[in-house]
Fold this sequence. Notes:
Layout: H1 12-25, H2 33-46, E1 50-54, H3 57-70, E2 79-83, H4 88-96, E3 100-104, H5 115-122, E4 129-133, H6 142-151, E5 155-159, E6 167-168, E7 171-172, E8 179-183, E9 196-200, H7 203-213, H8 223-232, H9 238-241, H10 256-266, H11 269-288, E10 293-294, E11 301-303, E12 308-313, H12 316-328, E13 333-335, H13 345-350, H14 358-366, E14 367-371, H15 378-387
Parallel strand pairs: 2-3, 2-4, 4-5, 5-8
Antiparallel strand pairs: 1-9, 6-7, 6-11, 8-9, 10-12, 12-14, 13-14
Amino acid sequence: MIPLIKNTFLHELETKKALAKFILQAEKLSLGPECSTFEKQFAAYQHTNEAILFNSGGSANLALIQSLKNLALLKDGSKMGFSALTWSTNVMPIIQMNMIPVPIDIDVKTLNVSSDTLLERLESETLDALFLTNALGFTGDLPYIQKICKQNDIILIEDNCESLGTELQEGKAGNFGLAATFSFFVAHHMSTIEGGMVTTKNRELAEMLRIVRANGWDRNLDTPQQTNIRTKFGIESEFDAKYTFYDLGYNLRPTEITGFLGQYQIQYLEECINIREKNYLTVEQEVKDNPDLITPEHDHLTRLSNFAIPVICQTPDLRKKYVARFSSSDIEVRPMIAGNIQRQPFYTKYIHKIFDLPSTEFIHTCGFYCGNYPELSRDNLKSIRNCLKK
């Protein structure tokens, strides 16, 4: 069988040995210097100023939206646009924060929101923020989306959990908005088992993210930040500061195991991305030669850090045919992320305004994907290609 993922880590044996040694020697395993070191390494890799580590990508999404609300950049009733083809944890925090989710249709050609679909939504809706999902390693035309957001005073944030390493001529995916989130779950480009990150160039937002991550207190701020916030709220002693909570937060802290694994795996990140891109381009040729299938466009990308291999069929009946072909070949497949999010039970329970999303609905009924990872062998790739033939 060709599973959706094969190993927890790239270079799994070496990583597990190093992890075992680290655990035996570590003085503490709760949030500490290993996490801080990984944050600095990841910020440098992403070419940004601040990186804040969390216990999952979903937690990173939750903390980011809570932080924007704590800073009064968003509030109850704010309208937040989001990519309609996305994951549950991109939308749930919008609802949980008492904001109004507004789905933005995607472009079938890129699997992502485009400047055209954003402008179309803005004809009828005024947005306070936009939460983009850069899906499966692909992106929309991010520079134009960024420009539209600036012109309309829309706070732009990116979920780059599936596109770590993807690049446009104008820069890395994840660097086009105020902040971006990343996931280090086992299926992603690099694994810390569970783990996530928020990156930003905004120091005030980074400070609030660290407050939100740790119950609302200041324990993980640097000394000048602690001094400022304690002075602001009249906290006069270190004793009182220990249990002072400044704003709404959660316990979303990672462990030192997460920080250690992040440092260890980031050394293999470029290798992983290169192999994923090569795998995808190898398989893509079969898609281009098959009129039953639609080939995603990525000419605007200078680097495609593919997360999984999308299969977009021309009709729902063709999807049934190709899903059956993959399954009979023992190749594990999944729906295209969460499909049209408006079809999800949690969404219809809480949100009653439903938008017309023709392209997202098309992907919901006609798309699926299989795994892409460095451990795929030549025979594995041949099997996938055979399934994609006419």
